[in-house]
Amino acid sequence: MCLMNKELKQEEQKNENKPVVYGRKKIFVRHVWGIFQKKRWISFTFFASLFYILPWIRINGRQPLLFDIPARKFHIFNVTIWPQEIYLLTLTLITAAIGLFFSTAVVGRVWCGYLCPQTVFTSIFLEIERLILGDRPAQMKLAKVPMTFNKFIKLMLRNIIWGIIAIFTGFTFMSYFIPNNELIDRIINGNLSGWALFWFILISVFTFFDAGFFREQFCLVPCPYGRFQGALQDPNSLVVTYDKKRGEGNKNLGIKGDCINCNLCVQVCPTGIDIRNGAQFECIGCARCIDVCAIVQQKKGRSPDLIRYASENEMKGLKTKIIRPRLIIYAAILTFLISFILFKIITRPGFDIEITKNRSLMYQKMPDGSISNMYFVKVLNMSEEEQMYMIKLKDLDGSIITGENPLKVKSGDVHDLTLTVVSKPISNEAISKFSLVLERIDEKGKGKSVEERTTFLYHE
Question: Are 57 and 64 within 8 A, CB to CB?
Fold first, then answer.
């Protein structure tokens, strides 16, 4: 009982310098630099730069990525996705999810540690805070003292820089939906729409409070990935692991462990966990504990891999299997999805036809005994230029009656027309299946065609 009270008292002393922020203990993160942090910051720099720079690039007078919601067009480099092709975006998201499953099965939460926007912005804000307020000991000391002029100035400077980054982030985010030159013009002239202003403010405020104050709580509370990542891993997955056998030694044999209980692995952890307690869902795989422990072990003349990326099987003395059924299945699904998306993008004709049968007048008998059916047709030109089309019948002996055939459709237009199909009755047949073929007849796209199946009703 005395031992338990002593341990509780020591734990309270450890946490007494951690002020409560928004109902939680604030985590003061110690700076560390090592081989994995270099890789992380290369990744951070690349993707953050890509995010901020892309809206300022122009290819053929247009941004490489522009999600034009009012015009219902998603421009992705030289590819324009139309509402009728939204399934391609859905498949892309599914592909990204399968890719996340694959990476998790191989190296755990590498996405969280190296690529997740939450991690990227939180890391940037942490570095700004360290440069202004100092490293962990200085921040803890500053947090304990009452508000002074010096403390106020430092906190204000930190918040101003955070605010500038947050506002620029909100502006950049909106630039993927409204071209940035147009967005600037609207802001200057006060013509920004209510919804655009709402999202601009929301993203800016969210970035400021999330990366500046909420931080690890986003990973621990609303983000579901940490909760189900265990189901995606297996004993062969490489995750951040503490070698407990080597670290603790064997007291019965008098063998001392390599861990010196410096607690630096806890001090550098952005989620405040102790990796020595084993696998925990709070671990985001940032490898900061690996880098700091390697520095300590090297100073002691020991192997630097006391904490390292390792599999559960490796810790049990078994061989880690790189190729396994789970990865083969993920790889096969990824290959199929990527190939299918690329195939659909490369082979798409750039136009489409939609047919709706007139339900108010199912069929009509003509004076000469022939049968007519009426259809409402939409012709979609999904290219960047005006095109000429001809509508033809397939698998039906009949003719088309319409005032527009051939027809000209401007770039991006949806052309509506009504047409009547006339055919001679077939004995004992009530319904016949046929296709309306939309063929491009201008010089640039001559011969390309799409078709849609529908029905012809002779009698009920």
Answer: yes
CA-to-CA distance for 382 and 73, rounded, in angstroms?
Answer: 9
Q: Which residues of 83-97 are buried (b: 16+ CB within 10 A; e: fewer)?
A: eebeebeeeeeebee
Count of other CB atoms within 10 angstroms of residue 22: 9
Helices (H) and strands (E) in the chain, counts: 16, 18
Mean pLDDT (the chain, rounded): 90
Torsions phi, psi for 37 (to 5 deg):
-70, -35
Torsion of CA 57, 61, 63, 67, to 10 degrees: 170
Q: Spell out the domains of the chain, with CATH numbers in brackets.
A: 9-348 (no CATH), 351-457 (2.60.40.10)
User: In sequence order, which residues have a C-beta less than 8 Å from that of residue 22 and are 6 or more positions away?
Assistant: 213, 214, 217
Q: What are the residue ranges of helices labelled H in 176-193?
A: 180-189
Closest CA to 71 of 171, 208, 173, 177: 177
C-alpha gyration radius of the chain: 32
Question: In 3D, which of 179, 160, 168 has the Cα closest to residue 204?
Answer: 168
Q: Which residues are within 8 A (CB) of 254 and not within 5 positions of it... i.e. 6 or more apart?
A: none
Q: What is the identity of the amino acid at 251? A: K
Q: Would you tell me the crossing angle of helices 35-53 and 149-175 to the nearest 10 degrees?
A: 60
Angle at 304 between CA 299 and CA 307, to 5 degrees: 125
Q: Which residues pair with 20 in a beta bridge?
A: 25
Q: What is the dihedral of CA 130, 136, 137, 140, to 10 degrees?
A: 90
CB 432 within 8 A of CB 426: yes
DSSP state for residue 67 in the 8-state scheme: E
Q: What is the per-residue pLDDT across 80-139, written as a single tens digit (0 to 9) for each?
A: 888 878 889 899 999 999 999 999 999 999 999 999 999 999 999 999 999 999 999 999
**Angle ∠(239,241,242) on CA atoms, nearest 5:** 175
The answer to whether residues 414 and 378 touch, using CB atoms and an 8 Å cutoff, is yes
- The CB density around residue 427, as the number of other CB atoms within 10 Å, is 5
Amino acid at 180: N
pLDDT reading at 15 higher than 70:
no
| Residue 340 tokens, joined | 């299918």
Of 382, 437, 389, nearest to 414 by C-alpha is: 382
Give residue 23's pLDDT.
52
- One-letter amino acid for residue 364 of the chain: Q
d(CA 221, CA 207): 17
